[in-house]
Design a protein that fits this description.
The protein contains nine helices and six strands. Helix 1 packs across helix 2. It is elongated and about 75 Å long. It is α+β, with helices and mostly antiparallel strands. The chain has a three-stranded antiparallel β-sheet. A three-stranded antiparallel β-sheet has the order 4-5-6. Strand 1 and strand 2 form a beta hairpin. It starts with 11 loop residues before the first helix and ends in an 11-residue tail after the last strand.
């Protein structure tokens, strides 16, 4: 395994000092974009602004930390450590990587340095553990298919089977996007990244590259549906009197098929029982907005 020296990596504190020196009127904003139900795994997004009044950030960064994993700091302060890492990544994504220092911060690399080397483990029993491995393998295969739109190639089973796919999906779920939109963004980010189909072979930098490209897709003003079909027209029905849409009722079919409704209005802004419409009515196709027809 390649060895590294933590002294070769900048601290987030160093990057922050340089940032505030260059941008005394700047602003740094952080947000928790995903957290597990038990609170032991958190994903935080950091945004860097040149001026405090700027609307759009000049750079962003995402980090994820799990309690008790990746170093001593995560024993009790995994949330704080996650925020620091996110800020460090956002600064590195802009101008504060350092002229010679590697891109990851010292805080990020310390998690690597704290991993035990050559740990001897007992051979797992082929009972519940086997089922878990099969579940992880299927999860990895499903993820690969969703970002490439074609069957994933078979790869050798690894000890950390499914770990990368699980982490990527955990971060992406924090965006709270519809499933069909997520599939389009994943496919686009994957094609732009030029990465291997074997998700589990991706390094931390590969995963960061993919997530950065995915995030760029979320910032587009045009949705994937609009890219294919063009601008989507608003077909909502607004009441001519009160402007509400949720209480408009089209009774035309009901009047034609059920005699007991023959004498009700063709259109209503219903205020029946618990509905809060204004009571507007129209009795035919000539006294309602033409775009409804």
């Amino acid at each position: 395994m390649a060895k590294f020296n933590l002294e070769n990596y900048e601290t987030v504190e160093d990057r922050l000092k340089a940032y505030w020196s260059d941008n005394p009127e700047g602003r740094i904003s952080t947000e928790v974009v995903h957290e597990t139900a038990d609170g032991t795994c958190v994903t935080i997004k950091a945004e860097i602004y040149i001026k405090n009044t700027d609307v759009h950030p000049v750079s962003t960064g995402i980090a994820q930390e799990t309690k008790g994993q990746g170093g001593f700091a995560n024993t009790d302060a995994w949330v704080e450590n996650c925020e620091t890492s996110a800020i460090g990544r956002a600064l590195a994504n802009w101008n504060y990587q350092g002229s010679k220092a590697p891109r990851p911060s010292r805080q990020e690399m310390s998690k690597v340095g704290n991993k035990p080397a050559d740990v001897k483990v007992d051979k797992p029993k082929m009972t519940k553990d086997k089922e878990d491995i099969e579940v992880l393998e299927k999860a990895k295969k499903d993820f690969a298919e969703s970002i490439t739109d074609k069957p994933a190639k078979k790869t050798p089973v690894k000890k950390t089977e499914g770990t990368n796919a699980k982490q990527l999906n955990s971060v992406i779920s924090g965006y709270e996007l519809p499933e069909d939109v997520v599939k389009v963004y994943k496919a686009t980010a994957f094609k732009q990244s030029g990465l291997s189909n074997d998700v589990e072979s991706w390094s931390n930098d590969d995963m960061s590259k993919f997530l950065d490209l995915f995030e760029e897709q979320t910032k587009k003003e045009v949705t994937p549906i609009e890219e294919v079909f063009g601008e989507v027209a608003d077909i909502s029905k607004y009441c001519p009197d009160c402007g509400k849409t949720e209480y408009i009722e089209d009774n035309r079919e009901k009047k034609q098929t059920d005699p007991k409704f023959a004498n009700i209005p063709s259109w209503t802004c219903s205020n029946y029982k618990e509905k809060n419409g204004c009571g507007w009515t129209a009795w035919g196709d000539t006294d309602c907005p033409t775009e409804w027809l």
